[in-house]
Amino acid sequence: MFNIAVIGASGYTGAQLVNLIVGHPQMTLKHVLVSENSADAGKTMAQVHGNLAHLSQYVLTPLNSDLLAELAATMDGIFLATPHEASHDWMEALSAGKAKVFDLSGAFRLKDTEVFAKHYGFAHTSVDCLDKAVYGLAEYQADALKSANIVAVPGCYPTASLLALKPLFNAGLLDTSMRPIINAVSGVSGAGRKASLTTSFYEVSLQAYGVLGHRHTPEIEAHLGTQVIFTPHLGNFKRGILATVTVKLKAGTTQSDLDSLYESVYADQPIVRLRESFPKVDDVAHTPFCDLHWKVDAESGYAVVASAIDNVMKGAASQAMQCANLALGLSATQGLIHGYE
Ligand SMILES: NC(=O)C1=CN([C@@H]2O[C@H](COP(=O)(O)OP(=O)(O)OC[C@H]3O[C@@H](n4cnc5c(N)ncnc54)[C@H](OP(=O)(O)O)[C@@H]3O)[C@@H](O)[C@H]2O)C=CC1
Ligand SMILES: CC(=O)N[C@@H](CCC(=O)OP(=O)(O)O)C(=O)O
């Protein structure tokens, strides 16, 4: 059994990870941690999250600098479900021992530190760790993940967008004279558990935000290999992301070209489900799946590809679990889907 710790366990993605780890056949949850002065320190997972009411044995413990070294030396895997700054500050100590570290924040996803500082608002000073970090888009990084000690788990919108776009870019089917246009809607859990006016029930209505400047634009571009126009929207639902991606294809590309392409790229990837109609958020909410569907207009040369995921699962926790499975020598889907494990 692998010994596992979750830091940021009281948050949405941390609690989801706790749930996944407790149900995992080869993992033992050893620590659930929060920040040093957390208002939730001393509470049980059951007290903080009603859906985990059966987990009163796990008590949220405050993290301190002594504990960082102990975790690094004793754990097999550590999940960081913490704000970008906290992940950035702790990675060096946490990755100095035997533990493999899986960071759900954006702190280690962008190799270009200038682009990072512009979008995250602070300078990257953990450059050795940044060099070592593997971008954990699990379907594309299985080999690199097997030997990774630091994994930057992709952002939620980049996961949905890249799973739709990478097959097209990698096959040379995109006409990059027109940037792919990604319009994506996220449920409010994407903004985390802390109360804020913009995510309060009365305030949320379908609205674009971060227009032409969201930090996920450079992340998508860096890991796709071409520039995009990305517009996120906040929707008045709890969980899920629907990304609708419009692309210009190389002249002569047909519907059957895309059908064969997606079928071959994702043939051995059970987490990616190729649907026969455009996907719905409800079909993937609370699951580890990414559902894809596409349509080509051969006459105009445009195609629309839609990608649906649960932001807390494939957009964060279950993708982190895919990465951990691979890094610990297990099958990618262990503890995630029955029938493939
Ligand atoms: N929600 C989502 O859909 C996605 C989130 N992410 C990323 O995952 C990370 C976690 O997100 P999410 O679960 O939504 O966030 P939440 O706000 O729901 O939870 C954050 C957790 O981190 C803890 N925390 C906050 N500040 C600190 C600190 N300084 N030191 C230690 N712990 C701290 C919080 O507890 P406390 O403050 O009480 O200590 C809480 O347990 C973020 O980096 C986010 O950007 C990535 C993809 C999708
Ligand atoms: C709805 C909502 O607010 N979504 C978040 C993105 C989700 C997330 O946390 O992604 P990172 O790990 O890259 O921070 C946002 O737009 O900032």
UniProtKB/TrEMBL annotation:
<dbReference type="InterPro" id="IPR000706">
    <property type="entry name" value="AGPR_type-1"/>
</dbReference>
<dbReference type="GO" id="GO:0003942">
    <property type="term" value="F:N-acetyl-gamma-glutamyl-phosphate reductase activity"/>
</dbReference>
<dbReference type="Pfam" id="PF01118">
    <property type="entry name" value="Semialdhyde_dh"/>
</dbReference>
<keyword id="KW-0028">Amino-acid biosynthesis</keyword>
<dbReference type="GO" id="GO:0005737">
    <property type="term" value="C:cytoplasm"/>
</dbReference>
<dbReference type="InterPro" id="IPR036291">
    <property type="entry name" value="NAD(P)-bd_dom_sf"/>
</dbReference>
<comment type="function">
    <text>Catalyzes the NADPH-dependent reduction of N-acetyl-5-glutamyl phosphate to yield N-acetyl-L-glutamate 5-semialdehyde.</text>
</comment>
<comment type="pathway">
    <text>Amino-acid biosynthesis; L-arginine biosynthesis; N(2)-acetyl-L-ornithine from L-glutamate: step 3/4.</text>
</comment>
<dbReference type="InterPro" id="IPR000534">
    <property type="entry name" value="Semialdehyde_DH_NAD-bd"/>
</dbReference>
<keyword id="KW-0560">Oxidoreductase</keyword>
<keyword id="KW-0963">Cytoplasm</keyword>
<keyword id="KW-0055">Arginine biosynthesis</keyword>
<dbReference type="InterPro" id="IPR058924">
    <property type="entry name" value="AGPR_dimerisation_dom"/>
</dbReference>
<dbReference type="InterPro" id="IPR050085">
    <property type="entry name" value="AGPR"/>
</dbReference>
<feature type="active site">
    <location>
        <position position="156"/>
    </location>
</feature>
<keyword id="KW-0521">NADP</keyword>
<feature type="domain" description="Semialdehyde dehydrogenase NAD-binding">
    <location>
        <begin position="3"/>
        <end position="148"/>
    </location>
</feature>
<protein>
    <recommendedName>
        <fullName>N-acetyl-gamma-glutamyl-phosphate reductase</fullName>
        <ecNumber>1.2.1.38</ecNumber>
    </recommendedName>
</protein>
<comment type="similarity">
    <text>Belongs to the NAGSA dehydrogenase family. Type 1 subfamily.</text>
</comment>
<dbReference type="GO" id="GO:0006526">
    <property type="term" value="P:L-arginine biosynthetic process"/>
</dbReference>
<dbReference type="InterPro" id="IPR023013">
    <property type="entry name" value="AGPR_AS"/>
</dbReference>
<dbReference type="GO" id="GO:0070401">
    <property type="term" value="F:NADP+ binding"/>
</dbReference>
<dbReference type="Pfam" id="PF22698">
    <property type="entry name" value="Semialdhyde_dhC_1"/>
</dbReference>
<dbReference type="GO" id="GO:0051287">
    <property type="term" value="F:NAD binding"/>
</dbReference>
